[in-house]
Amino acid sequence: MNSLHNFPVVSSIDVRWSDMDAFGHVNNNMYYRYFETARFAYYEKLGILDLKRRDNIGPIMAESSCRYLNPLSFPDRLTVGARIQSVGKTSFTMEFVIISEKTGTAATGKATLVMYDYEKGEKIPLPAALKGSINHIEKGNAESGKR
After folding, report:
1. The architecture CATH gives domain 9-140
2. Rounded distance, CA 42 to CA 123, Å?
């Protein structure tokens, strides 16, 4: 999973001194922040933030995981890839990869997000337009081989 060619959304992030902990490496919770940066870049591409503002519906985190492969430290530049691995009736699963300029693949992760009606306080089916946007982004990535 060292390659980013299968990830339609890629974010560049500089490791900050404040990302590190007392042991001299990036604290484990920062990896989730790096994933979050890529996830929200994907949301912007989908238009999901507009959906939340307009209809008060959007994704809510159901589950997340991170597999730590190599430690990170300051200074470093990271490239974080995001893609949607699967789509269900009410949820979708995203996959992430963090690649360090210094150490290569540093971590992989997943997040399952459920579409949620924030006014009613309940999960809802994924809107058809959102599914279409996901298919377009993922298909376009596969056809062009672009990052």
Report:
1. Roll (3.10)
2. 21
